[in-house]
Amino acid sequence: MADLFAADDLPAPTALAADAPLAERLRPAALDQVVGQEHLTGPEGAIGRMVSAGRLSSMVLWGPPGTGKTTIARLLADAVGLRFTAISAVFSGVADLKKAFAEARDHARIGKRTLLFVDEIHRFNRAQQDGFLPYVEDGTVTLVGATTENPSFELNAALLSRAQVLILHRLDRAALEKLVTRAEEIEARPLPLTAEARDAMLASADGDGRFLLNQVETLYSVALPEPLDPAGLSAFLQRRVAVYDKDREGHYNLISALHKAMRGSDPQASLYYLARMLTAGEEPLYVLRRITRFASEDIGLADPQALVQCLAAKDAYEFLGSPEGELAIVQACLYCAVAPKSNAAYKAASAAWRSAKETGSLMPPKNILNAPTRLMKDIGYGKGYAYDHDTAEGYSGSNYWPEEMSPQTFYKPTDRGVEKRIAERMAWWAELKERGE
Questions:
Q1: C-alpha 252, offset from chain centre
Q2: How many whole angstroms separate alpha carbon 148 and alpha carbon 119?
Q3: Phi, psi angles (nearest 5°) of residue 84
Q4: pTM of the prediction?
Q5: Strand 83-88 vs strand 114-119: parallel, antiparallel, or unpaired?
């Protein structure tokens, strides 16, 4: 699948038939005609510098769909005089790889090096990825892989150590506008859209140039009596479905963004990322589980009602179902976003767990041990226990720590929300204990 982009000065191709697909007629003829990736292809970019030096290193092009990965690979081979061959990890297996490597080795013997482009390289398993290593190391091929997935998760560390990872950006509005303008020049007529509809079409592409050109070609394929407005465009074309794989990086990026927006007390951004996940088809209860975790991790006793709100949202969602029950998840999300924040409980738990592992099996002091038998009473279990309710202040100030261990301070309440009152109460208890009351 070719990613096809053009700059304003792209020469009109004459070798293609007039009825060739629009995207094919807009195919760039040189790297400086690729739009939206100037940070890589420009004179100071990684690709620009390699081309200027006439030497390519193996690389992995990582970016969203429709941003030019395949096009850049083809143009790289032309720019430095390499033979270009391509395979797709979706349709290829070990036999195809062996054939590609054998052909590359034959051409190397006559002085023609090969650029091997591997589309969707993350779809090869770990063993198949290891198969690239000797051919990359001995220079049989210069490997250019393309992936929409985070290479850190999907590619072998050994392969990554032998290739640069270059990140392609989703196309911004200016880059998408260049594509539309060039299409209008080739077609010699404007798009049949109002200015508002044109803006809506650019937004609907979601940074995917290939999708945009397909939309443009669809518009040119029919005779419209008058330009379409946004409502007419929406009825005529489909909006691009947002990129979101529930077990891939998009999933983790959005749940991370939701968590941090709530932590940052931004209810508007929190609601936006919640909507992004739910409209993309995420399981609502997964999102609610993360919000519930947030209620304890980032709010805790600063507002104990946050956890109650989340559990009530779970009950409401299970009772109402979707989509009505999703409003309860929205309520929980907003409650957590605007609640006072504290990670004191989270930090206290971490410190207590660490201390418990370090101290092993220390016995609690005898005064707070249960004594259900006479023998246990005779050896001192429960002796001297002070019943706190019998004291004037409801607080005895007894020691509850093992004799071999000094008292620890795990929980340190903040001065926010309910925890401010908790801190005052703990300070009062400390004062009583110091006075011996």
A1: 4
A2: 10
A3: -110, 130
A4: 0.61
A5: parallel
